[in-house]
């Protein structure tokens, strides 16, 4: 008979109690293994990261490329030489342009475009502490650095102006020339001109592509019809204020005891003209021709300059004296004096 308590209820045996007690849950061995694997992987990455830093002592980090050229693990000078060797020829290739159906070529140096290898390498140099880059360099991974280009805006604009096609013969802009003792106005003509703003952007893009790919494809530059910047009103003003006085008679240039006259029917028209500068006509002198005309007149005459040095008379000195004298109509005032000691 099973044992009973004081109330007569049966007392469970030891076997019955053991059967009713739930068994302990099995240990989660799988999760422990994952944790251990994660710790091990993290440790391995740390070791790899440290090894990458220790092994990469060069100016340019391992795995660094510029437009496909591997310059990683080198000093700055060697990296520049590598870029010049591979990209230098591409950077000097003439650009192929198309203006109004006519194909032309333009040297990058003339357009003020160049690959700046020095600043490119400078930007790619220095320690890279990014774990992805450092570990990737050990595994042969690449780190791409951006090339740096130089753009001389002034040269680029001038080059685009040189590419301009005129719509006809003769000058594109108005001017004043001197002939037969008279100032003669020459009206400008409408002309086709490359759009400098859009054209500059297109040339820059084309140059970058050419350096990157080594291929030179024709760039069609936009052209628009431009009106002359110097109109008839400006031509009339220039003749009235300068042209007519300039041709009113002989003009003389004097330096010390030396002097030489210039005639409106002889020598003046050979070197004197008026050309546009920012929409205004200004007197312009062909210094080479002027020097040939006065020859040895001022030989031995020295001018004391602002720095105290004494130097011979130059064509610029003669032109400067002429500029003031040509504006006068009184014969007594048509003498341009070169001061020998302007201090």
Automatic annotation (TrEMBL):
This is Peptidoglycan binding domain-containing protein. Keywords: Membrane, Transmembrane, Transmembrane helix. Pfam families: PG_binding_4 (PF12229). The keyword Transmembrane helix applies. It comes from Streptomyces chitinivorans. It comes from the Bacteria. Residues 1-19 have a biased composition (Basic and acidic residues). The chain crosses the membrane at residues 34-55. Residues 106-206 form the YoaR-like putative peptidoglycan binding domain. Residues 1-27 are annotated as: Disordered.
